[in-house]
Specification:
Blueprint (H helix, E strand, L loop, with lengths): L2 H34 L7 H24 L7 H28 L1 H5 L2 H19 L17 H24 L2 H17 L5
Helix pairs in contact: 1-2, 1-5, 2-3, 3-5, 6-7
Length: about 190
């Protein structure tokens, strides 16, 4: 595909998503306010009157998302958005049905799942709106010291400490100086890199 065609397809897709989100934003905000306050459910009649147009907004947005053709590279994020919209629509319908048939007490048990479904829509929208970063060049990691270096450093440090202690106890400065040198060489042999 030519760059100009791909750019035009992406711009058309972004414009369609912007329109979808403008239609959906108010409904999602209203649904989240109902889901956030369990006491609202106890005014069952008012909530049951508010839910149908909000459910329809989710349904229409879900259908619109299914009708969009995402540009190359955005297929997975777009599929996640369409799935999240369908999930939020279904969770809202379930809450409305349970509220109508079982009352607010029973519907309240569905609130965490409903809130999760509504949040998933916002998360999916964020993933669609945020383009994936270009792959970075592979970084060249410095070679990590092997286990042999660590073992040699440990042996030098322990033996250096022992020789130093013996020299200090016996009062022989050349021996304790040798111990210090062995200990210091252990540090030089192995120094961890960040």
């Amino acid at each position: 595909m030519r760059p100009g065609v791909a750019s035009g397809q992406r711009e058309g897709y972004v414009a369609a998503l912007t329109g979808l989100w403008k239609r959906l934003a108010w409904a999602l905000t209203e649904l989240e306010s109902i889901a956030a306050d369990p006491s609202e459910l106890f005014d069952e009649q008012a909530v049951l009157e508010r839910l149908p147009p909000l459910q329809y907004a989710l349904h229409a947005s879900s259908e619109l998302a299914l009708g969009l053709r995402p540009p190359a590279g955005a297929e997975a994020a777009h599929a996640e958005l369409a799935d999240a919209l369908a999930g939020a629509r279904d969770a809202t319908a379930e809450v409305a049905e349970v509220l109508e048939l079982g009352g607010a007490g029973v519907a309240e048990t569905l609130l965490p799942e409903w809130r999760g479904a509504l949040f998933r829509v916002r998360l999916a929208r964020l993933r669609v709106a945020t383009p994936k970063p270009l792959p970075a060049e592979p970084s060249v990691e410095p070679e990590s010291p092997g286990h042999g270096d660590a073992l040699a450093a440990t042996v030098l440090a322990v033996s250096g400490a022992g020789v130093f202690a013996a020299g200090a106890t016996l009062g022989l400065w050349p021996v304790w100086a040798l111990g210090l040198a062995l200990f210091a060489s252990g540090v030089l042999v192995y120094s961890p890199r960040p």
